Amino acid sequence: MTAETKQIFEFAEFRVDLSEKTLLKNDVPVRLTPKAIDTLAFLVQNAGRLLEKEELMREIWQDRFVEEGNLAFNIKVLRKALGDDAANPRFIETVPRRGYRFIADVRKKAAGNGDHSVPMESGLSADQTKRGEYEAALNADEAGIERPDSNFLTTPDSGMIESGHNAKRLVWAAAAGVLVLAVLGFGVYRLFLSSASPTGTRLTSGERLTANGNVALAALSPDGRFIAFTAGEVGKQGLWVKNIATGSETQLTLAAEHTSFNSLNFSPDGNSIYYGSKGMLFVVPILGGTPTRVLSDYGGEITFAPDGTKFAYIAYPPENRETAVLVISDINGTERRTLAVSSRPNLFLRSAAWSPTGDVIVCAALNAQGHQEIVAVRVADGSISRLATPKWSTVVRVVWN
Description:
single chain; alpha+beta
């Protein structure tokens, strides 16, 4: 690689080579994942500018759908690698409810011979007026200032889903990101719908089911006999089915381009596996066969109705990224109807769960304060009510138990 094609940026004791995707601290390599390097690259290239979360996610993951938790996890990894402090940042500043700003002085190394570097122009510095906006927003959060949530329809009866369901419990997982949850198992909570105060539940035992250390997603069949999982390096993943009783594992043959996955579910009868790939939803028989495309506008997890004849999912219309819709579809994806529509700042997120009684679908949602919460959508009329939940940064998945 010639000097003319290299893209090197320097700040403090660090040097990041975008062409080689490497980070050096005092000329010593710092280990980072490719996505963490991509995140750092976009931040330093736009030093001094507030980067909205949506812009960062669109640039780093491009056409792939990911949760904000993935971005938050990358920022956390970068802060650890840089020795940065979120409360008193030297490098990466958080702007609550909006995004991030790289606040250090960045020098772009000039192409050609020598180590000459030139300062990058930045529209803002940490000492200018935008810091005042950041501090004001942070103070507002700490003071508990509420902002109107006019974009969600609410019903006068705040106890809508309590009647007849007090014995049911809603379980959801909340963490700083999907990877944090997968590795550390943070934040599993139970909400008794007759109470506004969630209590914790503790996992008491576990069993290792696969020898592969690169498992990304997993799903258990309804009868508990099989587990489906995706494994492999990012962009080179495969779909496997394991018979728990015998221990045998079988890799399913999929289309050549299906090498990354964002969801995995068994059908209610346990005979098929639904998986999300390339922004679409497919179904394949558990014993193998040709995958069939079910949805082309798929955005997140599917959740089946109790009778197994329908499923619901969150979709993000490509013509309007400011909205998210909750859709009900027949099992083949041929007949669909929109149940509820949300728009920023109150936006449905990818996780939804159909209640065992069939009358309510609960969803993860973003609110106007930038936190995530759980909302309940009535299947009969699409009306939406909020559940009393803590101020989470990310709700990874919602399930009924």
